[in-house]
Structure formats: C-alpha cells, structure tokens
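Final report, closing paragraph on structural work. Over the funding period we assembled a curated collection of sequence-structure pairs, and we close with a single example.
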Amino acid sequence: MNMEPGAERTTIEIKNLLRNLDPQKSTGHKDRKARLKHFRFYMSGESSGNSERITTPEYYDDDLPMLFLGSDDNPKMYGLLSACGTPSTEHDHMLKRSARTAMSVLKFLVLEFRDMVDGRPLNPEGEMNSFAIALCSCTKEQLKPMNLELHVSSVEEADSKRGGARDDACEIIFLLGTKHLDPFGEKPDPLLLEDLLPSSTARKAFWDWLKGRPNETEFRDAQNAAKNKPTIEDLAQTEEKDKKVDEPRNEMGIKINMGDDAPRVWTESELSA
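Its predicted structure, as stored:
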C-alpha cells in the first residue's frame, strides 16, 4: 500500500509509546494518558489534517505483537495489554488511572480502526482488522495482564477514577469469546468466559452487560461450542481408537502383521479348503 506516513514511522511511534507506558519510568498517569491519546490520534489518520479524505498510517503486522505484549529486549518495553491492567500500588483491587485510557485505545484499535486511503476503507466493514487478529491470536496467558476482572467488577468501581473501562472491556471479552484464534491466527478457537474472568462476580457483571443485546445469542452459541470442543486428551483417545479399528484382522479376529517379513496368517476358510 502506498500510504503516508510509512511503516517505519509507525514502528517508531509504537516504541515511543511502549517505552513510556511503564509506570516505573514515566512521569505519571497524565503523561501515560497523553501518550496513549497521541498514539490513538496518530493511528486514526486525523493528523493528516483532512477529515474527509483520511489516510491511516501504514504499519508492519510483525509490530502488532510487540505493541500488545511489549518486549523484554534492551530497552525493555511495556505492552499495551499490561498498560490496560496495571494495578494501583496504593489501592487494593483497583487500577492505575491510565488503565482506562489504555483499554479505550485497545478497543479502538481492534474494533473501530479501519485502514483508509483518501477516505476509502481498504477492508470490508465487519471484517476483523489486523489488530483484532493479533489480539485474538494471543494465548490465555498473554491476555492475563489486561486484568479484565478489575475492569468489569462493578459499575461503581468502573465509574471511579481508578476503576476500569467497563463497556470497552466487555467489548474486548465478547471479541475473545467469539472470535479468538489459534496462535497461528488461522483456526477459530474461542476462549471460555471462565478463562477471561475466573471470578463468578466478574462473570455475572459481564452477563448483566450482555443481557438483551442483539449479539447475546452469538456469544452464548460460541461459548457452548467452546465448552463442547474436544480436549487434547479426547483427540488422542479418538486417534488410538481409530488405529485399533484400522488394524487388519482375519476372519477369526486375529490381528494380521502386515510387515514385509511377517509370516502368512491363514484365514479360516483357507484352512478348511
């Protein structure tokens, strides 16, 4: 795609963001929130100055896992998912003030962002964008730093300065519970709600949020399919059973050795001929 600014510029923007999301390094929550808002503005393409003919910046798909997960390389970079769930050091079961902004940026990237050139979208509406695919390809362990439970725990906490972005987090949970993929980003592998929200209180909060929405049935159907999905152990047992069924046997039910040097095993009809 011939898009400006180039992908190299976006890589720089991602690294600048991540290096300053770590609460141990940045100047404070106001600085983190400002950097998060700047990155969202940059990715929206609005910085081009033409609101009617927006061109979104080009980016490398390989940079998206780094954006979400960060990097342990030198210099170490704090991932966006960790920024979504950074716990408060002064208040139990609460989040950093910038966590709500981080979750809002994440929702924008995976659910609202569309690649645009001169105001023309490049991917069909409703199709998962590259950011959504990258997020949905993360493993359960990689998703844990989001601390989704703290975002959806209660309306009261979500409305506080140190509460979560409840609606945004529930949208992310819906995405992962219906569209999650295998680590290769190829096959559907929806996550169970229990994997995303281990506590019953958080799950109830999510179901309360989902109740009555047009896509409630879609989520329930995806969850039922995920619960009925065969485990690795089930697949191994099925494979073993298939092997036993496929083993050649004679008319007396005796297994036949099909090796090149195997002795001939005569059937009952051949022996009585």
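The longest helix spans residues 29-44. The chain has a mean pLDDT of 82. We thank the funder for supporting this effort.
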